[in-house]
Amino acid sequence: MKSKIMSRVKTKTKTFKDTADRPLRLWDDLIGFEGVDAKLYSLWAEGRLPQVVIVEGREGIGKKIFMAKLAARFFCQTHTACGHCEGCHGVQQGYSSDMFWLETEGTIKVAEAEALQDYLQYQAQTSPRLAIIIDIETMNDQASNRLLKILEEPPAGVLVLASCNRFDKLLPTIRSRSVRWRVEPPSVVESTALIRSRLSTADMFSDTDILNTLRMFGLSISRTLAHLEKGSADQKAKLDRLRTLLLLPMKGESLRELQDLIKEQGFKAPDLAQFMEVALNQSYRRIMETGRETSLQDFRRIKHWRRVLSQVYRAGGSTKNNLNVQLVAEALLSPTET
Ligand SMILES: [Zn+2]
Predict the structure, then answer these.
(1) Domain boundaries, position 38
(2) Are residues 217 and 255 in the same domain?
(3) How far is the CA of 23 from the centre of ligand 1 (A)?
(4) FRET pair for 250, CA 20 to 30 Å: which of 39, 118, 196, 271?
(5) What pLDDT, in 10s, does the model give residues 206-262?
(6) Residue 156 located in a structural domain
């Protein structure tokens, strides 16, 4: 009986697949949540933490990673979530036998709530045993009813730690059985820096771009990142095309293609100039890396474009914002001699 339940638990326990390519200490670059995990852990160690805690915070601020770090506090050999010991690795891989990690793609259904219940009832009576529930508000009514029994009277030594975006959207019965722990999102400056460090094409975005996107997505770091990455995949394809074009003689076919590319992008002048700069920098890097035989010719073309760009900047005065898109395009699109 027991082994059957254990194997069921195993299939329900999630690992951090989406962060598998990141370093093992996946909470290393967690920002915000200052000292919250240490605080909650020490409350537990002093026997002052209630058995059901719901961490509430805005969507996309890193609550899931925070929950992993919090769980690691309990199993880490030094209770510091060091990231290196066996206890921490167990949490990172999601295989710790003293932890049930409940996380689903969509709705949390009754079968999952049952699996959690089974786990808590039949698991060896070790302490602490953690039940982690990610996005508890995604639980459907049946699952909630099932879970209420656990929340009403959790077995001894069990700690239920759940996360949610909005505590006030939870069922009153769940709210009344738990303690709400609110975490504030990190500052926009911290968020911007974090997003920049994670973007694969960070040089394509200014801090203002990132900040505006962040505001557009209600300060959600993960949604901002997803949006910028998606946009940058598109931009990247165009940059690749532009980079190739810039190394061709600017006449006939290649000139027309460059004109089309610029027209279709609907650039503002400073963006166009910046776009060209990025493409040139990338071309330069690529030549240095591959050591192509034609590099002398390529270097000449890059030099040509740099000269054109500096003329454009000079004509626009000292600030990039004075650039006129028509002038920039004309300067960039005048046929080259090579
Ligand atoms: Zn550790």
Answers:
(1) 2-186
(2) no
(3) 14
(4) 271
(5) 788 888 888 888 788 888 888 888 877 777 777 778 777 777 777 778 778 877 877
(6) yes
Residue 226 lies in a domain: yes
Encode pLDDT of 87-134 as tens digits.
998 888 877 788 899 988 889 999 999 999 888 887 667 778 899 999
CA of 318 to the centre of ligand 1 (A): 53
For residue 156, the CA-to-ligand 1 centroid distance in Å is: 24
Last residue of a domain, one of 186, 207, 224: 186
The CA 122 to ligand 1 mean position distance, Å, reads 27
Distance 150 CA to ligand 1 centre (A): 29
What secondary structure, in 3-state letters, does the chain show?
CHHHHHHHHHHHCCCCHHHCCCCCCCCCCCCCCCCHHHHHHHHHHCCCCCCEEEEECCCCCCHHHHHHHHHHHHHCCCCCCCCCCHHHHHHHHCCCCCEEEECCCCCECHHHHHHHHHHHHHCCCCCCEEEEECCHHHECHHHHHHHHHHHHCCCCCEEEEEEECCHHHCCHHHHHCCEEEECCCCCHHHHHHHHHHHCCCHHHCCHHHHHHHHHHCCCCHHHHHHHHHHHHHHHHHHHHHHHHHHCCCCCHHHHHHHHHHHHHHCCCHHHHHHHHHHHHHHHHHHHHHHCCCCHHHHHHHHHHHHHHHHHHHHHCCCCHHHCCHHHHHHHHHCCCCC
CATH number assigned to the domain comprising residue 58: 3.40.50.300
User: Residue 241 falls within a domain, yes or no?
Assistant: no
Q: How many angstroms does the Cα of residue 67 sit away from the middle of ligand 1?
A: 15
Tell me how far the alpha carbon of residue 99 lies from the centroid of ligand 1, in angstroms. 15
- Asked if 67 and 164 sit in the same domain, the reply is yes
Same domain, 180 and 232: no
Whole-number Å distance, alpha carbon 44 to ligand 1 midpoint, is 17
CA of 25 to the centre of ligand 1 (A): 10
Same domain? 219 vs 180: no
| 181 within domain boundaries | yes
> How far does the centroid of ligand 1 lie from the alpha carbon of residue 283, in Å?
44
Q: Based on the structure, what is the number of domains in the chain? A: 3
Cα–ligand 1 centroid distance for 84 (angstroms)? 5
